[in-house]
Specification:
binds heme C; 3 domains; two-stranded antiparallel ribbon; 14 helices; globular; mainly alpha; Cytochrome Bc1 Complex, Chain D, domain 2
Length: 308
């Protein structure tokens, strides 16, 4: 680690009388943070790209940001996302300075994920699941950023979204956000076990499971009191209720088989929307994280399925 020589250098500086006291104590705090690995907000260096790679899987980023064809460059954009408001195209998020987000700072990235705002201040459309990603912790956002920076830059040009009037107006999203968007990182519930809190974080923040599994009103806003009680895909296909009202019929082993291999107790193949989530996300989770996801789903209040 760099910590020891750097720390030695710092302590030499600290002993020199020319360094004013206030700077000295700030430096001391910094050295302590370095030594004990508790870097305060953004003060030191890059996120951990290796951890970020795992978090990108837990977030399913590759699916929406990769064209749906063989030989597509991962994260270079182009995936069509059909919704009742029109078709969105996932943008290129590789570090290419023009085609991708190569000229972004870490702060630009954190603002996009936490607040759903572009570097120029315009709103993102909530087809980018920032209403869930806002809950990702600062540390995990930094690691995700570290990972995106480590990708090979791709010059693949973005395609403009093809949205029905007036849904293409980014300014209208301000109203949508005001009604439905609560920014801010996930807060653990001290009355719940550590494993249930971990599962809640994976499901609500990174996994954005509610984007499909929570029913929406006619403005596309999630019905909060019906969290994970089952919804519809944008194309109108039914999406299962994930609360115990339905999942109690399945054992933990059956749920694991479904989330890792896509096999159902009655031998069915899951609908493609979930098949992709299984491939990109749930099958890639560590056994501990998968167990946490299941423990959290088991802890939800049982809600009846959405009336059709
Ligand atoms: C369900 C699809 C979907 C998923 C999953 C998704 N994104 Fe996106 N993302 C989008 C769409 C659509 C946009 C463009 C939104 C707009 O133009 O308003 C976008 C935009 C972005 C942008 C801004 C790019 C730019 O050029 O302005 C970043 C950064 C980004 N996503 C990162 C991520 C990361 C990191 C993950 C995984 C943790 C992720 N996305 C997962 C759909 C998705
Ligand atoms: C892109 C939309 C989408 C997302 C995101 C999504 N799912 Fe699903 N999920 C579906 C659909 C559609 C089905 C129904 C599959 C079927 O019936 O064939 C489903 C089914 C399931 C089932 C089977 C339930 C049953 O009735 O047996 C489980 C479990 C599940 N999803 C868990 C998750 C978890 C956990 C996440 C988050 C990591 C998640 N899903 C994210 C679309 C989605």
């Amino acid at each position: 680690m760099l910590a020891s020589p750097a720390a030695a250098g710092f302590s030499l500086m600290l002993r020199a009388e020319i360094v004013p006291t206030c700077i000295r104590s700030a430096l001391q705090a910094g050295v302590l943070a370095l030594l004990f690995g508790a870097a305060p907000g953004g003060a030191f260096g890059q996120g951990d790209a290796k951890r970020g790679e795992y978090l990108a899987k837990a977030g399913g980023c590759v699916g929406c940001h990769t064209e749906d064809k063989k030989e597509a460059v991962p994260y270079a954009g182009g995936r069509a996302l059909k919704t009742p408001f029109g078709t969105f195209y996932g943008p290129n998020i590789t570090p290419h300075p023009q085609a991708g987000i190569g000229d972004w700072t870490e702060a630009d990235f954190i603002r996009a994920m936490r607040l759903g705002e572009r570097p120029d201040g315009a709103n993102y459309f909530p087809a980018f699941p920032y209403p869930s990603f806002t809950k990702i912790s600062d540390g995990d956002l930094r690691d995700l950023w570290g990972y995106l920076r480590s990708l090979a830059p791709s010059g693949r040009a973005n395609r403009a979204h093809d949205l029905r009037f007036p849904f293409g107006w980014r300014s209208l999203v301000t109203i949508w956000k005001w009604l439905f968007f609560t920014p801010g990182p996930f807060v653990s519930n001290p009355r719940r076990s550590q494993i249930v809190n971990r599962g809640a974080y994976l499901v609500q923040a990174l996994g954005h499971c509610g984007e499909c599994h929570t029913p929406r009103n006619f403005l596309g806003g999630p019905k909060r009191s019906r969290f994970l009680a089952g919804g519809k895909t944008p194309e109108g296909k039914a999406v299962s209720n994930l609360t115990p009202a339905r999942l109690k019929k399945q054992s933990d082993a059956e749920l694991k088989d479904f989330l890792v291999f896509g096999t159902t107790p009655d031998g069915d193949v899951p609908a493609e929307a979930m098949g992709e989530v299984i491939r990109n996300t749930t099958s890639q989770l560590t056994p501990e994280d998968l167990a946490a996801v299941i423990a959290y789903l088991r802890s939800l209040p049982p809600l009846p399925a959405e009336p059709r």
